[in-house]
Amino acid sequence: MKVKTFAKINLCLDVLRRKENGYHEVEMVMTNVDIADVLEIKKLEEKKILLKSDNKELAMDETNLIHKAVVMLQKEVKKEFGVEIVLEKNIPMEAGMAGGSADAAATLKAVNELFDLNISEERLLEIGANLGADIPFCIMGGTVLASGIGEKLKRLKPLPRMKLLIVKPRIGLSTRKVYESLDIEGLNKTGFKHRDVREMVSIIESDKNDKEKIDEIAKSLNNILEVPSIRLLPFISDIKKIMMENNCLGALMSGSGTAIFGIYENDEDILKTKEIFEKDNRINYIHITNTL
C-alpha cells in the first residue's frame, strides 16, 4: 500500500498558557500544502517493525513517530503484527510543517486499513493526540481550527488556492527549544496583545470572493512563536522582510519554524523572490507550491 501525506502550514498560531503537565494551550488555524511524503507499507510474516527511508538523517528506529504509531496500534488491538514501512521524505525537517506528524498520521490510517483493525477515525484521533499535538490535524486534513493542545478540531471551509513560496534556513529549531524559549506568562504580564485567531476563522468562513479572501488572509497572518524563534534565529525576520519587499501579500513562519511561507499573487513575483534566495547559502530549502 502506498500513501501520500501532506505538509501543513499555520495561518495563525496563538499560545494562551502553559499547562501544569508542560503542554501549551493553543489556538491555531492550519491547512495543507502540496508537499508530500510518500509511505509504502507492507505486511511482514515476521512480527517486527521495519522502517527504511531515503533520508539518511532520519533515525528509523523506535524513536521515530512512525514506529511509535505502529506500537500504539498494536497496543490498541492487543495484537502484534509485522510491518515494513519505506518512507520517501519530501517535507523539510525542523520546518514547522508537521513532517513527522504527517508520517505518523498516515501510518495510523494506512496500517488500520491494511490490517483490518477497524479502529474508528474518532479513536485514531485520540491515539494521534497521545503521540503529538499536530497528528490529529494530519489525520483529518483540510483547513482546521485547532484548540486545546491541538487535539480539539473544527473543520473550516476549504481555502481558495493560494500560491506559496516556502523558504527554510539551514539552521533548524526544535519544537521543544522554541516552546521552552517562549515566556508566555512573562508576555502576558507585560500586556502582550494576543491576535484573535477567530479573526482568521471569520475571514475563511466568509462569502467573500477568492481574491478578497486571499488578501485578507495574507494581512491577518500571525504566529506568536515568531517571538522566541526570531530571538533564537534573527535570519527568520530577514527572510520575511525580503519576501515583503518583493510584492509578497503576507509572510509568516509556520509552526515552531524554521520554514517561512509567503503568499503571492503572480508567478513573476514569486520567481523573482525565489532567485534572490537561491543565491543565499544560508538557505537549504526553497519550494514553490500551493494550498490544497
What brief labels describe this structure?
292 residues; alpha+beta; Ribosomal Protein S5, domain 2; Alpha-Beta Plaits; 2 domains; seven-stranded mixed β-sheet; four-stranded antiparallel β-sheet; 11 helices; globular
Description:
The chain has two domains: 2-155, 2-Layer Sandwich (Ribosomal Protein S5, domain 2), CATH 3.30.230; 163-290, Alpha-Beta Plaits (2-Layer Sandwich). The model has no long low-confidence stretch (mean pLDDT 94). The protein has helices at residues 65-77, 99-114, 121-131, 135-140, 175-180, 184-189, 197-205, 210-219, 226-232, 235-245, 267-278, and strands at 2-18, 24-44, 49-53, 82-88, 143-148, 152-155, 163-169, 222-223, 250-253, 260-264, 283-290. By secondary structure, the chain is of the alpha+beta class. It starts with a strand and ends with a strand. The strands form two sheets. Strands 1, 2, 3, 4, 5, 6 and 8 form a seven-stranded mixed sheet that branches. Strands 9-10-7-11 form a four-stranded antiparallel sheet, with helices on both faces. Keywords: ATP-binding, Isoprene biosynthesis, Kinase, Nucleotide-binding, Transferase. It holds the Pfam family GHMP_kinases_N. This is 4-diphosphocytidyl-2-C-methyl-D-erythritol kinase.
Short description, anyone?
By secondary structure, the protein is of the alpha+beta class. Helices cover 37% and strands 29% of the residues. It is built from 11 helices and 11 strands.
